[in-house]
Specification:
Helix 1 crosses helix 5, helix 1 packs across helix 6 and helix 5 runs parallel beside helix 6. It is globular and about 70 Å long. Strand 7, helix 5 and strand 8 form a beta-alpha-beta unit. The protein is built from 6 helices and 8 strands; from the N terminus they run αββββαβαβαβαβα. 48% of the residues lie in helices and 15% in strands. It is an alpha/beta fold.
Length: 212
Amino acid sequence: MRRKLLAIAILLLIILSASALIVCNHKVVAAASGKLYSNTDSIPYRRTGILLGTNKYIRNKYENRYYTYRIQAAAALMKSGKISYLIVSGDNGRREYDESTQMREDLIAEGVDSTRIYPDYAGFRTFDSMKRAKEVFGQDSVTVISQSWHNERALYIASQIGISAIAFNARDVSRRAGLRTRMRERLARVKVFVDQLTGKEPRYLGRKIVIG
């Protein structure tokens, strides 16, 4: 009897987990409907873009193409005049690890005006990046820049915190190369809703920063 009850409990847990993945994914995808763009000609102008960070290197020596493609996408938007200012939001939780400064340097190397780049050193998670864009940088209308799957989650978060957002899709890596990342993304979408239910707040907000 005990084994039977355990088997039933495990089966119920599997069903609930699968349902949560499906429902959360559906809500995130729906929130991004009509707000994703993949070329600079069609995307509307927004004064400020927010580039979501990631590590430039994998295991400290291999190129992270997610990073490279995001830098290229952000530079393309700036050069085409579809955004005027850019928040580069990344993790700077350790002295030796600074995504925002690295992104800023690489954008300048791509020809982006340094005076139009605003580092956000406390973008520890996508939620933190979006919340800080509103609360610290005073933005209620932005263009998010990342890969499409990441943009979808950022757009959902934006819709929940009062930001009118659209997104520009950076080039993605192949499905095979990005399989592990896409699996993590499904779990991250569930965590968005867990954070909502538990009233999660950014790790750090700090003083206001005026853009422009």
